[in-house]
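Quick start: what a row looks like.
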Amino acid sequence: MQCYEHLKLKTNVKQINGSADVAPVFRAILDAESELDRDKEHFWILCLNTKNHILRVELITLGLLDQTVVHPREVFRPAIGCSAKSVILAHNHPSGDPTPSDKDETLTARLIDCGKMLDIPIIDHVVIGEGDEYWSMREHFNNDYCHRPALDKCGW
């Protein structure tokens, strides 16, 4: 796992108030990556304290062109280690289209359930696309735009 705590200063984002604050953090991380790694899917966790200040940003896994392997144990390890109050998940789509897949939504629902067991809520899962494009699963779900069975069951 790689720790990107130093990059939060380059984004000027210190407190997260919504998905619009999250996307620039991960865009800065992607822009700092080598060209070879930019074409791979990354999965990160952003750990927050009680005031939604960033405690830690960590790369959980670096995958392939269109997928990555994510396990709840690895996702929540950094959050437990820094005593995070809540977390935000993020991953990129190298294709540039931030629309989440069915697998993305199923994984999100599973991780939300795990977060509930650990009392570390997942505030959002943001998919980073090309340029400034991103998709907030939380915002789309709450706006009745995203009614997929996997997320309906998680009680977001």
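That is the whole record. The domain at 2-134 is CATH 3.40.140.10 (Cytidine Deaminase; domain 2). The chain has seven helices and six strands.
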